[in-house]
Each structure stands twice: as C-alpha cells, then as structure tokens.
Amino acid sequence: MSGGIISPSLSDIPCYSAAEIARDRALLDGKIVHAVAGKAWDDIARGSAYGTKSVLSITPEEIDRHPLIKDAGLLEERLGWKLSCLSSVNCRYGAVKIVGANALNRQLGLPRSRSTIVLMDKFTLLPLCLLDGTDISAARTASYATLVLERLLAPRRDVSVFLFGAGPIAEKIILALDRCHGERVREVLIRSRTVDSAIRLARSLGETVTFDIMPARDNRDLGRCDFVITASNAKAPVFEASEIGDATVLHLGGDETPPAHLERALRCGRVLCDDVAMVSRRGSQSLALHFSRKGTTLEQLGSVLGIRPITAIMDPSEIGQEKPVHITCVGLPMLDLYVAAHVYETLSGITNDSAGEATVAEATH
Questions:
Q1: Which of 24, 107, 350, 351 is most buried, with most CB under 10 Å away?
Q2: In angstroms, rounded to a whole number, what is the distance separating the alpha carbons of residues 349 and 355?
Q3: For domain 142-331, which architecture applies?
Q4: What CATH topology corresponds to 10-136+334-364?
C-alpha cells in the first residue's frame, strides 16, 4: 500500500463478456460509436490521445512444423497468425488491447480473431475493467467507413457501396452506414470469398437496413460504385485496377489492393493513412507492401510522395478534387480506447462529467 491507494486484485475488477456487451444493443450502435470516434479524432488532432501498436508473427519454421498449419498454403485467405498489442492513453484512461488471430481457427470452430481490452486509470495505471474487445474492435473499425462517407462523399444522396468481406466487420460496417447515413446510401453490394456467405449476410440484414443489400458474384458492378471498402482477409488483391473507376477506396484488410491502383492514386489522386508509421511497420497491407517490395518503406517515402494522415479529410477542401482517393487504415489503438471507455462508463453508470474523477475512486475502492 502506498499513499492510501490499494491495488485491486483481479477478482475485484469488473469483467464484461461479449454476451454482456451485446445484451445492450445501443452500446455499439453505429451512430453512437461514430460520435465516440469523433471525440477520439478531435483528441488525436490535439495530441491529447496517442498510442502505439506492436505485432508479433509466427516464424516460417513454426508454420512448417505445426500439424494444424501444414495446409496453410491451401487457404484462400491469409493465415494471418499474429499476436498484437495496442496501447493508448488519453487525458482520463489508458488501455491495452490484445489481439490473437489465426485463419486456421475456423477449422476448429473458433473465431479467426479475438480481442481482450484492459481499461486502466491513466495516471495510476490501475485496472478498471476487463472487456471482451472483439465486437468493440469491429465497431470501431466500422467507424472509419462512416467517417469517410461523411467527409468525402458529403454532397451525395445516392451513394453506391461495394463491400469486400462478409464477416463481423462487414456486418458492423453495413449497420453503421445505415444508422449514420441511411438516407444517403442507395445500395451496398457484398462480395466475399464464397457467394453463400455474401448471400447470408445480405439476407440477415435485408430487413434491418433502409437501403438495398445485394450479394455480388463478381466485380462487374464495381466500376459504377462511389465507395469501395475492403474488409476481408484476402491474401491477394480482390479487384483489378481496370475494374474500378474513381471511387474512394477504404482499405481495412490485408493485401487487397492492386499495385496499379495504388500507383494511379499516388500519381494523380490522394493517398491517406490513419497513421503512416503504424501502417508501414505493420507491413502486411497493400500500401506498405507496395513500398517494401521495391526495397524501401512507406515511412521513408510517405511524406515525400504527399501521403497524408486521414485527419486531412476533416477539412475536405484539403483533399481537393484529385481522384482516386485511397485510404489505408491499420486500426488506431486510440479508437479502441474511446469505445472501450464508452462501454465501461455506460455499464458502470459513470457519467462523462464525473468519469475523470471517478476512475481513481473506482480503482482504489
């Protein structure tokens, strides 16, 4: 004990399971998460919220020796084995999100990716709660889509969206687009590795959202869409550069965007990242790979080539009329922090005005 502060034991810390978080449907409602993420972006721009991300990957030798992983080369998606740690702070809280992912989990009937978040008081770093972060992660990732549509496609009232992926993130994206911009979206076309999964997602949400949802068997309609979102775990580009027009592309997955499209965006459009350094160091997304395959890094050449932070879209006049716009997002730890804090405050009955004072009291009770 020091200064009268007693560190709580793990048994004293509230734990919020996925079921508890899902029970209150308003917790991760797309419109609410969009507003929470907006506060995060404001604080990121002010420098009062910041964080870092590290990724540990399994070695090739371990892949070759592991009995489950021996058929990884036959997967239609990336193995994507990674242990990630996302740490962040703001003026009130600190948070660490631990992510474990492996595509072969599906063969065991397990989710490909699971997240766990520890929310802490910023200054004492005493834990306040433990949260299942899987749905929180999907919801904060979906907020990128609502932000981009709000800022870059603001004048449009009949936006066509082409969405690659039919997993939990794709579902959250569709629901968030409906809640935030339902009156502005005309249709969402879904393409996945299997037509069946796209059909299932379209059917499950068809009666829930206000716009049309249609499964796509190919990229035939890609060229007429205004907003393209890649939210899959593909291990190769999911479209050809010739198939896409001047759509805004939001890249949320792996190696999904062809080099020719990136080169065109670098040459005559705009390229943005949520964090250039994090995207570069992660090194698994198309934009970072585009540079590493040429023997350099995105971090080294990004500023020289005019690659901007995503915060530039807060003032669309900064982007201008150049097309296409390509945005690569690694997933900022600060967004997880803000959404996790929102869930904690809501479930524990803490109001925003008192939360700054309440955190230490909660931790030292």
A1: 350
A2: 10
A3: 3-Layer(aba) Sandwich (3.40)
A4: ornithine cyclodeaminase, domain 1 (3.30.1780)
